[in-house]
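Quick illustration, no need to memorize.
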Amino acid sequence: IITAYFLKNRLYTCNVGDSRAIVGKYKEKDKKWSTVALSEDHKPSLPKEAEKIKKMNGRIEAYKDEYG
């Protein structure tokens, strides 16, 4: 889920789960498009995210189903 909210001259975004927000920018001078990330992935395999999880006394474990 991604939410984007404009307030005056600012853009606020938030994301939950496997969602990503980007915006396209067109440079008239160069006649080229580029992208800008507005959100970051929330995956425990990323060091920054793992640190946040552990800091809140969470744990990171591999998922195991009934077959192991």
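The CA atoms of residues 45 and 53 lie 11 Å apart.
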